[in-house]
Every structure is written in C-alpha cells, then in structure tokens.
Amino acid sequence: MAEQMNIADELLTSMEQAVGIAEGTVKPGRIWTPPEINVADIRKRTGLSQVRFAARYGFSAAAVRDWEQKRRTPEKAARTLLMLIDKEPQAVERVLVGV
Questions:
Q1: Are residues 87 and 45 in the same domain?
Q2: What is the largest CA-CA distance in the chain?
Q3: Domain limits for position 54
Q4: Where does the signal peptide begin and end (predicted)?
Q5: Helices (H), ranges, the chain
Q6: 9 contacts 16 by C-beta, under 8 angstroms
Q7: Is this model's pTM higher than 0.90 or not?
Q8: CB-based contacts of 25: which residues, under 8 Å, 6+ apart?
Q9: Which of 30, 39, 82, 85 has the fewest other C-beta atoms within 10 Å?
Q10: 3-class DSSP state for residue 82?
Q11: Per-residue pLDDT for the chain (99 aa), expressed as one digit of tens each?
Q12: Based on the structure, what is the number of domains in the chain?
C-alpha cells in the first residue's frame, strides 16, 4: 500500500515545486494560454454600440474600449463571458433575462 502524505508534507512538496518552477529547474505541469479573442468583432456581431454592449453584459464602457483598442486584454472571467457571448449568445440572453 502506498504511503499517504499528510497535509504538511503535501504543502512542503508543492512549495518546493513552485520554487523549482520559479527558478526554471522544474517544468510546470501545465500552462494556460488564453485564446485570442477579438472583442470588437464579438461586439459588432451583437449589433450593439460599445456603451450598450458594456451595459448589457456588465462591463465598463472604458474596458470595452480599451479591449477593442488593444490597450488591455480581458481577464479570464471576462474572456470566458466574451467567448460565451460569441459562441452561445442565446444561452447568455436566457441567463440575463432573470437578472
């Protein structure tokens, strides 16, 4: 039977791995690479202005403008919502009806 690690040993092992990754001596188990998205194209397909798009989906108008002008990139949660708006707009609409 394999020996079970206690939580302290697991944390110590994880910290050692993190240090190794930071130092470049250990490769991370996985790396998340965010998919490229074009916020302007997504918004234009909705037929909404930047201000109305922002208001409808809970973004700030400044964020939408900055994303479209490539001054900022959406964070993970916003990127996920944008991809849903692009791929499954009816699902997003169904959820927002109750809001």
A1: yes
A2: 62
A3: 39-97
A4: none
A5: 7-23, 39-46, 50-57, 61-68, 76-87, 89-97
A6: no
A7: no
A8: none
A9: 30
A10: helix
A11: 456 668 888 899 889 999 999 999 988 888 878 788 999 999 999 999 999 999 999 999 999 999 999 999 999 899 999 999 999 999 998 998 875
A12: 2
